[in-house]
Amino acid sequence: MKEILNTEKAPAAVGPYSQAIKVDSLIFTSGQLPINPENGEMPDSVEEQTEQSLKNVEAILKSAGSDRNKIIKTTVFMTDLTQFSNMNGVYAKFFEEASLPARSCFEVSELPKGAKVEIEVVAAV
After folding, report:
1. Which three-class secondary structure state does DSSP give residue 74?
2. How many CA atoms lie within 13 A of 125 on its CB side?
3. Closest C-alpha to 12, from 43, 56, 42, 73
4. CATH second-level architecture of 2-124?
5. What global pTM score does this model have?
6. Are 28 and 21 in contact (CB under 8 A)?
7. Helix (H) or strand (E) holding 86
């Protein structure tokens, strides 16, 4: 059975999609832009954007009874892979060594709202 997940602790979708979908014991988040849900603003640096995107992911997971340690797979989209080490430093701090998920990272030509980073995950409940 499919359940639509939405929380006010993460930014609302900027298009016709859900923040996340729960199917059985898995959660699939949509790509999370680095928008602060409290003020609607986006930080400037890749590091700050990575941190905010991960906070948004975590807020969605918590609303479904999950957390960062149950993330199975992440996909990171960046507009400039020369900033990969900057993103990776923040990303590494977010995860404990024992629960590092599988990951893919892609450079894309553009992201919505001019973001530099967008992150989506698959997690267990």
Report:
1. strand
2. 13
3. 56
4. 2-Layer Sandwich (3.30)
5. 0.95
6. yes
7. helix 84-94
